[in-house]
From TrEMBL:
<feature type="compositionally biased region" description="Low complexity">
    <location>
        <begin position="200"/>
        <end position="213"/>
    </location>
</feature>
<dbReference type="InterPro" id="IPR003613">
    <property type="entry name" value="Ubox_domain"/>
</dbReference>
<dbReference type="InterPro" id="IPR011989">
    <property type="entry name" value="ARM-like"/>
</dbReference>
<dbReference type="GO" id="GO:0061630">
    <property type="term" value="F:ubiquitin protein ligase activity"/>
</dbReference>
<comment type="function">
    <text>Functions as an E3 ubiquitin ligase.</text>
</comment>
<dbReference type="InterPro" id="IPR003265">
    <property type="entry name" value="HhH-GPD_domain"/>
</dbReference>
<keyword id="KW-0677">Repeat</keyword>
<dbReference type="GO" id="GO:0006284">
    <property type="term" value="P:base-excision repair"/>
</dbReference>
<dbReference type="InterPro" id="IPR058678">
    <property type="entry name" value="ARM_PUB"/>
</dbReference>
<comment type="pathway">
    <text>Protein modification; protein ubiquitination.</text>
</comment>
<dbReference type="InterPro" id="IPR013083">
    <property type="entry name" value="Znf_RING/FYVE/PHD"/>
</dbReference>
<dbReference type="GO" id="GO:0016787">
    <property type="term" value="F:hydrolase activity"/>
</dbReference>
<dbReference type="InterPro" id="IPR023170">
    <property type="entry name" value="HhH_base_excis_C"/>
</dbReference>
<feature type="region of interest" description="Disordered">
    <location>
        <begin position="192"/>
        <end position="227"/>
    </location>
</feature>
<dbReference type="InterPro" id="IPR000225">
    <property type="entry name" value="Armadillo"/>
</dbReference>
<feature type="domain" description="U-box">
    <location>
        <begin position="31"/>
        <end position="105"/>
    </location>
</feature>
<dbReference type="Pfam" id="PF25598">
    <property type="entry name" value="ARM_PUB"/>
</dbReference>
Length: 779
């Protein structure tokens, strides 16, 4: 325990590089600060990167962990998220300075093989405790202005192609991310806005980039137009700077191609110093031009990595009113990109944006609130906002009516985290939100619905919520709502909502630990004996074909078709080309490995399995412990290994070879019978193999699909998963099953609010008052 009271990590596999052990007589203490050491390798970091939790690791160490599918456990029981990393140039510079000051050799690049041995020893001999090594975010900011040219690459994601005014959803790639539409209109819901208030031109299209070399001296592909603008922007004459910026601003206001072509390293390097120009006109036009450039998706990451965020923060703190409007708009536009969210938060934009919520400018307030909304979609920024005291600030604004509809969006995100929920309950958020609903005639519909979403999030998993709601006399509010004319219809809706919420809660208690497919023998026999032709709810007429088609079209417009399922979609259109398809046995094993774990872990487990045992004959001959070790990163290794060995053993005994391709020649009922005969292969696994590997029209029902089907009323509230499978396979048209199944799975995976998602409120027809009432009755 150090002087600051924080626990420090102590890995038994601590290795110090010999290059770091040299000392000088003038510097007897050459032990490097723990912040400079990679928590995994134990040596000075050569290429430090920062992850969402704020810790720094050497890039090679993270790559080894990714390749091995291993995530170390922190002392508090949490695990670091290695999905997103950004270069920590500040700590790298500090390490090099420390080495020079202490006459110690600079850190050397880590050897991949050496780190792999360390990580493998950690996998085999896990430790229960280790010291906490955190990088200081203040150090991360010190050398931002000295950011050298670096080659970056990132994956671009698509932006939704249309507006849907009935949508109020958020998505996560990772982590919890936002559903984005590509245009603003006077009626576009705030969470779906993608253009800053200071921008009024037409919408732009999406595109993608793979890598950018941020070299401002590169002129190989510069157009004459770019050369002219670059010369003006670099001119020492203020008039030339003004004319160049006005031209750039006009060119990028409506011309989408110009935005992409002119967002070059050379133009950005020339634009950067003008952001902090002492001349107000120059500064305002420079930031407005940056807003225009940031509207194109390929430009967003490049702008952040070019060092503009600290400059925009300075303008937001001390710039003119008009410059602050554009700075808030730029930060909002940049925050829409998933890869930027963590970086913007780490670089210190949250506090100035919170302050800007009380700006005299309506535009600044609007864009600051939406920037905070999108930034708070990731956990690391939620924690930072709570530590900054954002909850009390936001609740006071809601109470006073200042920008309530915008501020409530941020509170909804904070309520979805443990830290935010606790802070909101401590700050009397329940009473404030219920009081806001009481003044319904003074509150907009969007604000009322956001209040409902925030209350719903606060009610989930909180033992304090019910007592606080009673203290706020929330029950009186429901009675008053009932007395104004909803009558019997409201009571019926209330009862339906109550039933839905209670069933959801009961199901979650029964399914702790993930997907929850137990693969019981009675489930298999039920599916085999009843078959899809046995309708469990013959008098229940939902969903209709029209409903199925409408939901498919809406989700397709919202998300696009999920890229992870594109190869299976292609195979369905070329089902006779078996040479290009994944084998049925591969598909069955992949599905078994996907149970009760994340998609990433299951893919890593399959890759590890094939690496250890390239052929299925080798898997069959392998010892059970060796097989378990190979798939351990996917979780439940003993159970899954036993299932895989049983499938292979049965295949060998029946057919003399390890192959399931013969299933392609059978009828769908025969396929189901054959697959169900394998011990440990249940209805969901059978359905997944049918739809993805055998190109049959089936509709698997996992936890995601079951949860949505129950929420939107496609099955009765008493339905279990097996009956839901039978019912939906009868009701959903065959031609819609594949696309709809993939889209429902994707939507439930991405949506932050899950059951509270407004999209599904609209489908079920539940009134806001009924959902509120259901919240209170679940405890």
């Amino acid at each position: 325990m150090g002087g600051n009271g924080k626990h420090r990590w102590k890995f038994s596999f601590y290795h110090r590089s010999s290059t770091n052990s040299s000392s000088s007589p003038n510097h007897p203490n050459t032990q490097p600060p723990p912040e400079f050491l990679c928590p995994i390798s134990g040596s000075l970091m050569f290429d430090p990167v920062v992850i969402p939790s704020g810790q720094s690791f050497d890039r090679v160490s993270i790559q080894v962990c990714r390749d091995l599918g291993f995530t170390p456990t922190l002392p508090d029981g949490s695990t670091p998220d290695f999905s997103t990393t950004i270069p920590n140039l500040a700590i790298k510079t500090t390490i090099l300075t420390w080495c020079r000051d202490h006459h110690t050799h600079d850190p050397s690049p880590l050897d991949y093989t050496s780190v792999e041995k360390i990580v493998r020893s950690k996998i085999q001999h896990p430790l229960s405790s280790a010291p906490d090594i955190r990088v200081s975010e203040l150090e991360l900011l010190k050398a931002v202005a000295e950011n050298p040219p670096v080659l970056f690459s990132h994956a671009a994601t698509e932006i939704g192609p249309r507006i849907n005014n009935n949508l109020f959803c958020s998505t996560s790639s990772s982590s919890d991310e936002s559903v984005i539409v590509t245009a603003n209109s006077p009626h576009t819901p705030l969470p779906l806005t993608t253009r800053p208030a200071c921008f009024s031109a037409s919408d732009s299209s999406s595109s993608s980039i793979e890598s950018e070399s941020l070299n401002p001296n590169s002129q190989s592909s510069a157009s004459p137009e770019e050369q002219e603008l670059f010369s003006k922007l670099k001119s020492p004459d203020i008039y030339d700077q003004e004319t160049g910026l006005v031209s750039l601003r006009k060119l990028t206001r409506t011309n989408e191609e110009a935005r992409v072509s002119l967002c070059s390293p050379r133009i950005l390097s020339a634009l950067r110093p003008l952001i902090i120009s002492r001349y107000n006109v120059v500064q305002t036009n420079a930031i407005a031009s940056l807003v225009n450039l940031s509207l194109e998706k390929p430009n967003k990451v490049m702008i952040v990595r070019s060092g503009f965020v600290p400059l925009l923060i300075d303008v937001l703190k001390a710039g003119s009113s008009e410059a602050q409007e554009h700075a808030a708009g730029a930060l909002f536009s940049l925050a829409l990109e998933d890869e930027n969210k963590m970086a913007i938060g780490v670089l210190g934009a949250l506090q100035p944006l919170l302050h800007a919520l009380r700006s005299d400018s309506e535009r600044t307030q609007h864009d600051s609130a939406l920037a905070l909304y999108h930034l708070s979609l990731i956990q690391s920024n939620r924690v930072k906002l709570v530590k900054l005291g954002a909850v009390s600030t936001l609740l006071s604004m809601v109470k006073s009516g200042e920008s309530a509809s915008r501020v409530l969006l941020v509170l909804c995100n904070l309520a979805a985290s443990t830290e935010g929920k606790s802070a909101m309950l401590d700050a009397n958020a329940v009473a404030i939100l219920v009081g806001m609903l009481r003044e319904s005639e003074l509150v907009s519909e969007a604000s009322r619905e956001n209040c409902v979403a925030a209350l719903f999030a606060l009610s989930q998993g909180s033992m304090r919520f019910k007592g606080l709601a009673k203290e706020a006399r929330a029950v009186e509010l429901w009675r008053r709502v009932d007395s104004v004319g909803l009558g019997t219809e409201w009571v019926e809706t209330f009862t339906e909502a109550k039933s839905k919420m209670q069933k959801i809660r009961k199901r979650k208690q029964q399914q702790q630990g993930g997907d929850g497919e137990a693969e019981h023998a009675h489930s298999k026999s039920k599916i085999s004996s009843e078959g899809v032709d046995q309708e469990p709810y013959p008098s229940y007429h939902r969903p209709t074909p029209e409903e199925c088609r409408a939901v498919r079209d809406d989700l397709l417009a919202l998300h696009g078709f999920p890229p992870q399922f594109l190869k299976y979609r292609h195979q369905r259109h070329h089902h006779n080309d078996h040479a290009q398809q994944e084998t049925v046995l591969d598909g069955l094993v992949k599905t078994v490995l996907s149970q009760n774990t994340t998609e990433l872990n299951s893919l890593n487990a399959f890759a590890s399995l094939k690496s250890a045992f390239p052929s299925w004959d080798q898997v069959l001959a392998a010892e059970s412990t060796s097989l378990e070790n190979a798939i351990r990163c996917g979780g439940l290794a003993p159970k899954k290994a036993s299932c895989i060995k049983n499938v292979l053993k049965c295949l060998h005994e029946r057919n003399g070879k390890l192959c399931l391709e013969y299933l392609r020649d059978l009828s769908i009922d025969e396929m189901k019978t054959e697959l169900s005969n394998f011990k440990g292969v249940g209805p969901k696994t059978v359905a997944c193999v049918l739809i993805f590997n055998l190109q049959q029209d089936d509709f698997p029902v996992d936890t995601h699909v079951f949860e949505i089907a129950r929420t939107i009323g496609w099955v009765p509230s008493i339905a279990d998963r097996n009956k839901t499978y039978l019912h939906l396979n009868r009701r959903i048209p065959n031609e819609l099953k594949f696309d709809l199944n993939c889209l429902l799975y994707t939507h439930d995976t991405y949506c932050v609010y899950r059951e509270a998602c407004r999209y599904f409120w609209d489908i079920t027809g539940l009134e806001v008052s009924a959902v509120l009432a259901s919240i209170l009755t679940t405890f």
